[in-house]
Amino acid sequence: MDKIQSLKGMIDLIANRSDPEDFAESIFRTEDALKNIFINFGYSEIRTPALEDADLFKRSVGDSSDIVNKELYSFLDKNEKKITLRPENTASVIRSVIEKKIDGNTHKFWYLGPMWRYERPQKGRYRQFNQAGIEIIGYPEGVAELEIISMICSINNALNIKKSVIKINHLGNKITKAKYCNALLEYLKPFSSQLDELDQKRLEKNPLRVLESQNQNTQKILKDAPIIKDFLSDESIKMLKMIKNTFSKDCKIEIDYSLVRGLDYYTGLVFEAISDELGAQDAYLGGGRYDNLSEQLGGKNLPCIGMAIGIERLSLLSNVDAEDKTLISFIILSSNFEEKAYKIAHDLRTINSKIVVDVQLSEGSLKSKLRKASKSNAKFAIIMGEEEIQTNSIIIKPLIEKNSEQTVMDINEISSFFKDIT
Ligand code: HAM
Question: Domains in the chain, please, with CATH?
Fold first, then answer.
C-alpha cells in the first residue's frame, strides 16, 4: 500500500536528545527560553483557537495583503461556513479580547503556537510554522514601545543572537498614513501601465503594498517615490531616534523609512529583526503598533502594540544550551520487578530535579539496552536483574567516564548517592 506523506511545507519535529544540533531539539529549547523571557517580563499566556471565521483576517490583516490574497488556508465547514486556519495571531487575540469584553482594561499577553500560510516552501518558509508573540493591549504610544524593543534586545542576548539588525520605522497616525498613501498613489498612477498585474492590483487596493513588490522594474520606479519620513511629525521622528539611542549599546538598531510591513493594521512604530545568516527569508521577528484594529473588529478604541517571532527562523540563529540535566537510564531485566523499579525511579526524580530518569521499557538484552543508554548520552545506567532483586541491591554503571567501575549498591542507599548528582 502507498505510504501517506506529510503535506508540502509542513514538518514533523522529533527531538533527538543525543544530537545537540538537532533542529527540533533547538526549536523546543528556543520555545522554552522565549516562554521564560515572557514570564520574566510579567506577561500572561493567551491561547486562541487555530480556526477562525474567515472574515476576521480580511478585516484585520487586510484584503490587499499577500497573506489574505494568496496565502490563506480557507474552506467551508459542514455547515457551509467559511473558516480559516489562522495565518497569524494578533487578529485572534483582539477578537478574543473584544468577545470576552475585556477591552476596557490593559493586558500584556504572550502566545506560542502554529500558524498556517499557503506559501511556496523554501528554507525558513513553511506552510505550517510556529510563532511566539506578545500583544500589549490598552497602552497608548510611549513606554510600551520601549518595553517591546527592550524585550527584543533581551531575546537577542538570552539566545545569543549575534548578527541581528532591528529595523524600525514609524507609519504615523491614521491621517499621516492616509496622506502618505495618497501621495504614493499620485506618484505611481502615471506608471500604472508599466506595473505588473499584481502591483496594479496592489496600487488599486493599497498603494503601501506596492513598496513590498519583488518586481525589479517596480523597485526602479519606486526610487523617486515619496518617502514616509516627509509626512511624519517631529514627534514620530524623535521617537525613532530616542528608541535607537536608548538601546544602541545593547542591540544594533537602524531607522529604515522604507519599512512598511505586509499587514494592513499597523499605525505608528513598525519593526523587524533580521539576520543575514538566514538567507532570503531574513526576518525572524516583526511587529508594530495597531491602534485601530480593535475598532475595525467592532470593539472599543484600544491602543495596542505587539510582535511575533518565527520560531523556526529564530532557532536557526539561537545558541541555547540544553538545560543542564543528568540522564540516568534505568534498565530492568525482568518484568517481575517493574513495580519496585518504578518506585525507585519515582523517588529519584523526586529527590533531585536535576536528573532525568529514563526507564527502558523495551524487551532486549542487557548489551543492547546499555548501547541504547550510551547513545542517548546517559551518565549512568541503573541495572536491576534477578540477582539484584534477591539481594535487595542494584548495579550502578557510569557510562561517560570510561574507566569508572560499576558498583553494586544496597537499594536503600540509592537516594543518597543520586541526591546531589548534577
Ligand atoms: P509577520 O511579520 O507576518 O507578523 O510574522 C512574524 C514572523 O513570523 C516573521 O518575521 C517570520 O519570522 C515568521 N514567519 C512568517 N511567515 C512564515 C513562514 N511561512 N514560515 C516560517 N516563518 C514565518 C505577524 O504575524 C504579526 N502578527 C506580528 C505582530 C504581532 N504584529 C503585532 N503584533
Answer: 23-172+232-317 (3.30.930.10), 326-418 (3.40.50.800)
